[in-house]
Amino acid sequence: QSIPANLDIDALIVGAGFGGVYNLVQLRKLGLNAKILEAGSDFGGIWYWNCYPGARVDSELPIYQLTMPELYRNWKYKEKYPGWKELREYFHFVDETLDLRKDVYFNSHVKEAVWDSEAGKWTVVTADGKQARTRFLLLCTGIGSSYYVPEIKGLSSFKGVCHHTSRWPHEGVDLRGKRVGVIGTGATGVQVIQEAAPVAGHLTVFQRTPNLALPMKQHPVSPDLQQQMVDDLYPVFFKKRHQTFGGFMYDLVSDKTTFGVSPEERRHHYESIWAEGGFRFWIGNYSDLFTDKAANEEAYAFWRDKVRERIKDSWMKEKLAPMVPPHPFGMKRPSLEQRYYEVFNQSNVTLVDVSETPIEEVTPKGVKTKDGKEYELDVLVLATGFDMVTGGITAIDVKGTDGKPIGEKWKEDGVHTYLGMTVATYPNMFFVYGPQGPTAFCNGPSCLELQGEWIINCIKHMLKHGYATIETDKAAENAWRQIVIDENNKTLLPLAKSWYMGANIPGKRIEPLNYPGGVPAYRKHITDVVEKGYEGFVFKKSGDEITN
Ligand code: NA7
């Protein structure tokens, strides 16, 4: 269905991923007329776009799902870390169970949203010129909806097949027997490389920074086991998501420090969280890994030795797991891997260190590096990432009470939000899983349900009291930015060139994009604000100013 002329609704959501779906369901429960506008032609958000070989979530089940009982009681995943196909099946199940599709306009790429102060409404415009009016605007655009292609000379001259991973053709690309090149070794690069290596004629990996990847420990999960856990264990796990640093089922160890325990105890802990896999070696480790350089280096040394054991060639060992850490461990996002390091023992795999010999240009035949070498390719994969965290919002010309696009403002003054959910001068606008929330360190559904619930309660509060608009106070917003900066400065995060700090995009301001204090502390902040009568917000009733 396409957007009808004169669409005028209570709430418009941008994005049909986890965040959009959650909020649509809750807004319906409030009796509001809510619709989703989605750029893709199906549900899934990032899982609609990410269909490159090996695309898979790094959060484990059962927490990587929505916690509505009618969903989790009836859905069974097949693998501990589901792949993109299964995740798309999940979204179809969610759609069928909750009858969502009738409230979604697909192929509707939102380009602009302008606040009309007189009407107290947003006018939302799509790329193909369709318009909708709405009282509330919820941006559920996710952290990775604005993909990034570096400016590499000659890129468009390449005669082979070239795709950014986020725009991988849904029908796939046959890599069998091909000469495949992958630029980038982030979470995406690691996944593509693992899939391409066994089938490619030759695989060339262009690495700038080694990924300090952790063992995923993937395995199939039986429907029976899930059924057994549904009644008793799932509710416990779901509760845990708001009690642990990363919204996972395990937590940072904060009652002990790395060097406050004996070397034997430390080793035992490292070994056990390593064996269990996932992000445990990162956000299930001693919490001073985030704050203490020596503690961080101790964890790094363990990681390095474990990884080196798996690599045969000594040059490769040093490139993939250097003796000296390339950055503090975990301060740039570690990925999860299954057989990543073994790939580099294969004779059909070449690793090119582009920090030493940068890519000079892409030629019609392949990739040329500064040392004059040309790597001939049939397929070039750009696993070069996204304008993370902010890019989904700034890609839209959102204009509030002062008419300035949000991207311009953030570029000039730095990212400003209040509680990672609202922005001053943008009334009746909310977002989930975006800047200055716990986003980057948090399991997606954990974080966006927490924020979604807060937003829905806020709208409920407005409906109850007859408030027309909510506006964020500038001073409250400045204070929140300072909290984010201060929390970040307590950690080693500023020492890594990562997307957490906006450092992956040339010219992007270097600043913390996420609240790094963990989910429980964040939750306390946002609930305290409510308990203090929505401190930091101004509600207005048809023109009259009423504070709180
Ligand atoms: P990432 O993690 O931002 O990774 C992008 C990769 O691309 C990274 O290895 C970059 O190297 C590399 N890159 C970027 N530009 C260049 C140029 N010009 N030359 C060579 N290499 C380059 O994106 P992903 O898609 O892997 O993952 C994003 C998030 O999605 C992930 O963290 C999860 O949350 C899910 P660098 O490290 O900057 O040296």
Automatic annotation (TrEMBL):
The keyword Plastid does not apply. InterPro entries: FAD-binding_Monooxygenases, FAD/NAD-bd_sf, Flavin_mOase-like. GO terms for molecular function: flavin adenine dinucleotide binding; N,N-dimethylaniline monooxygenase activity; NADP binding. Gene3D superfamilies: FAD/NAD(P)-binding domain. It comes from the Eukaryota. Its cofactor is FAD. Keywords: FAD, Flavoprotein, Monooxygenase, NADP, Oxidoreductase. SUPFAM superfamilies: FAD/NAD(P)-binding domain. Belongs to the FAD-binding monooxygenase family. This is Cyclohexanone monooxygenase. It comes from Dendrothele bispora (strain CBS 962.96).
